[in-house]
Amino acid sequence: LPSADMWSAGCVMYEMAVHRPLFNAGTDLEQLGQIQELCGSVCEAGWPSVVELPDYGKIGFGNTVLTQEEREQGLLLRGCPRWLAPILAQILCLDPEQRPAATEVGTLYGAIWL
Prior knowledge:
Radius of gyration: 14 Å
Number of helices: 5
Distance between the termini: 17 Å
Number of strands: 0
């Protein structure tokens, strides 16, 4: 699966486990705010190729880069099961190049998820 699909799969996995959406916003800006609260700022420090996106830089979001462990803690605080949080912390990385492929997730965690 492409990295964008892995992000979506991670959101669906969370919703299946917790029975509510991970990001539940009324507007695009609210959605971006919720994503950044969990995953860190949309910035070049955490996602080097973000500067290639056509609208990057039109809105400033800060410069907070969160580690996988910090994302995992944020997921746990949102009610994510302890067994699922490490998987989602990898999948929900802002930089698509850093997200695991579906085959990696299946190999590493397939027995747990399936």
